[in-house]
Amino acid sequence: MDEPTLTMTTIAASSNNTNNATMTTMTATKDLSGVAWTGGSLVGSLNPINHGFRTSDGRGGHVVTNTHLRYKRARRDGDGNIVQEGIDDDIDSSIPGNIVVQFRDADGDEVGGVMDVPTDAGSNELGALVRSLLGDNDDDDDDVVDDDGRAGGRGGRCVVPYAFFARVIKTERYANASTGVLESRNIEEDIDITDYASLRSFLKQYRDHVSTERTLLLTYRPLAIFRVRPVTRCTDTLPGHTDAVLHVSYSPDGRQLASGGGDAIVRFWDVHTCTPKRVCAGHRDHVLCTSWSPCGTKFASGDRRGYLIIWDPIEGKAFGGSNGGIKAHAKWITGLAWEPMHSSASANVACERIVTSSKDCLVKVWNARTRKCEATLSGHVDSVECVKWGGEGLIYTASRDRTIKVWNGNERMGRVGTLVRTLVGHGHRVNTLAVSCDYVCRTGPYDHRGKIAINDDIDAIVGGGKVDKNSREWREAAYRASIARYDNFKSSDEPERLISGSDDFTLLLWHPTLDKRPVKRLTGHQQAVNHIAFSPDSRFFASASFDRKVKVWNGRSGDFVSTLTGHVGAVYQVAWSGDGRYLVTASKDSTAKLWEVPSGKRARETLPGHEDEVYALDWSPNGSSVATGSKDRTIKIWKH
Questions:
Q1: DSSP 3-state percent helix, strand, coil across the chain (nearest 5)
Q2: 198 inside domain
Q3: How far apart, in whole angstroms, are the C-alpha atoms of residue 554 and residue 598?
Q4: Residue 32: which domain range?
Q5: How crowded is residue 605: how many other Cβ atoms within 10 Å of its Cβ?
Q6: The predicted structure's pLDDT at residue 124
Q7: Mind telling me which SMART domains this protein's record contains (predicted)?
Q8: What is the pLDDT of residue 463?
Q9: pLDDT in tens, 381-426
Q10: DSSP strand pairing (216-222 vs 98-104)
Q11: Residue 457: what pLDDT?
């Protein structure tokens, strides 16, 4: 029989000012019957907030409870005698049961006062504590997104999950430039502790860098402001293509779906009615790659004959009229990437530049408005397989020549197209690239509802399709919103990260803005790596391989997280949900599969229905639906 003892430190905050919290130590007897116990940890119905207590002076408001649980377990020894065992018997005695913590937001502002927090608290408990300090106590389970991207739950409020970063002090040895003598200096570093089981686990690993006798600074950052429900069923099948569907992609505001395939046709679909809006003929061969501009007012497609077409997705016409096709390359186009909206010199020129890569070994930067080539990037000696435009003004290209090249893509940093550095490390051709800021660059100014702030008043917002996106007011608002979203994304001091995947079965993690040497080599796949994607918050990335497996990795350190097994054919593509909790994969085995990350190793759902290989895949920015495109010439829409 267990005999639990519950001691609580409460922080009572007046409803008028949740930041001016006062600490009150309380002793209470609470009925713990019906609560599940696992390995000495309390799980189940006891939530660290809202226990209904009041402070001694009778004030109401939010009451936060830091729970430090101690109980004894009874067992019989070999002689039949009852022996009491303490929960802390196997715990490192050098780590205390509580630690003094100060929470800070991403701007460095302190939230609440200094407080004792149990060291067995994990990110969920820390998140509940932060939400209580901020006055947000809704339950997680109710916070989902409906088909229009609106938050569900009580009154439509969203519970925000947080990442936590702990400040540690490391000692660095360096050579004094003037004397040559080795000296030491202390360096402060913020360590992501979100995925640690508890503060105790973190403290055990960093015991040499953290003093439990001092206040631990914990910085919190929101991971997502909405939660996505897992897709489980096919709600619509979209016919129309007469050959394999090779690409599907949602617009940045989530209101349109575009597709391209072997029939040389680009199609635009209404997401809400799942009906065709425009059928665009102009290509004369397979449409091999497509890309939406971050503002959502342009759509680019490239084909096997080397032609590039920029489309108006509303009118369904090519910019430049019937002669809008640009003979961009001598061989087929392998990749497209728009300049991120926040990188543009001004709102007037935002979403005007796009870069193309080709099997002719060249990379070109184009002005979508004038349809002129602004720069030709030459240097690769074999086919360029992939191109990305990063958030820091750099263009990344991967080639069959086993190299990755980094080019300047920002006029403020010099001539566009200048080679910055060459990244060497793979032993075979490089197939795919992923940049840590891909998601925020792709969605530009739009939040998960497909809306942007029209001015500094947070309540004044506009939705896609409801205003003139060519107006000066809209362009200025979108430009400012894209800058704000990117700045919020990169609020930490971490450099931009690049992941490359190769036919040599490996991935390489790079800090391409800083160094030409790889940070880490990632091994484990047994065949070629053909696609990589970062989660929207960049905490994880997933790699798809011809070995029929998907691997999930830590997005910052490159450490292995899990292997997702279940497909019986090569995995072609992966796509993340907007909140980073789910992953969908497309395979040669004619199925897509849904996985829960990082906890799941087996597929949560198998999405059958296609009659042939699934080539294309995308998850809508608002999280409401997934689109898959197949060799069977159909597109399927999947929802909760």
A1: 10, 45, 45
A2: yes
A3: 10
A4: 2-222
A5: 17
A6: 85
A7: WD40 (SM00320)
A8: 53
A9: 999 999 999 999 999 999 999 999 999 999 888 899 999 999 999 9
A10: parallel
A11: 43
| Nearest to 244, CA basis, from 269, 257, 263 | 263
Whole-angstrom distance, CA of residue 338 vs CA of residue 196: 37
Instruction: Identify the residue whose tokens are 């990037």.
Output: 377
In this prediction the pTM is 0.75
**DSSP assigned state of 602:** B
- The answer to whether position 181 is within a domain reads yes
Report residue 420 as tokens.
Answer: 């910055």
Distance, in Å, from the CA atom of 19 to the CA atom of 195, rounded to the nearest integer, reads 27
Can you count the helices (H) and strands (E) in the chain?
A: 4, 46
Q: Which residues in the chain show pLDDT less than 70?
A: 1-93, 137-160, 177, 225, 453-467, 491-493
Q: pLDDT value at position 492? A: 63
The answer to whether residues 389 and 441 touch, using CB atoms and an 8 Å cutoff, is yes
Count how many Cα atoms sit within 13 Å of the Cα of residue 592 in the half-sphere of its side chain: 34
Give the residue among 268, 273, 272, 244 at the shortest CA–CA distance from 634: 244
The single-letter DSSP state of residue 450 is S
Q: How far is CA 449 from CA 148, 163, 252, 430, 620, in A?
A: 7, 22, 10, 36, 11
Cis peptide leading into residue 598 (ω within 30°): yes
Is 214 in contact with 168 (CB distance < 8 Å)?
A: no
H helix runs in 178-294, sequence order: 199-205
Q: Does 444 map to a domain?
A: no
Do the domain assignments include residue 136?
yes
Partner residues linked to 281 by β-bridges: 265
Distance linking the first and last C-alpha atoms of the chain: 43
Report which of 288, 352, 300 is spatially closest to residue 326, judged by C-alpha positions: 300
Dihedral in degrees, nearest 10, Cα atoms 404, 409, 413, 417 = 70
CB 324 within 8 A of CB 285: no
- Strands (DSSP E) found in 231-321: 233-238, 245-250, 256-261, 265-270, 275-281, 287-292, 299-303, 307-312, 317-318
The burial of 280, by beta-carbon neighbours within 10 Å (0-12 exposed, 13-18 middle, 19 or more buried), is given as buried
* Residue 193: how many other CB atoms lie within 10 Å: 23
The dihedrals phi and psi of 547, each to the nearest 5 degrees, come to -80, 10
Distance CA 397, CA 378 (A): 11
Q: 131 to each of 45, 98, 128, 231, how far by Cα in Å?
A: 18, 20, 5, 28
List, in order, residues 6 or more apart from 474 with CB less than 8 Å away. 454, 462, 467, 468
| Tokens coding 16 | 């008028």
61 burial via Cβ count (<10 Å: 0-12, 13-18, 19+) = middle
443: phi then psi, degrees, rounded to nearest 5: -85, -5
Neighbour-count burial for 28-54, b at 16+ CB within 10 Å, e otherwise: eeeebeeeebeebebeeeeebbebeee
pLDDT at 146: 45
Q: How far apart are CA 419 and CA 579, in angstroms?
A: 35
Per the DSSP assignment, residues forming a β-bridge with 542 are 533, 552
Residue pair 135/52 in contact (Cβ under 8 Å)? The answer is no
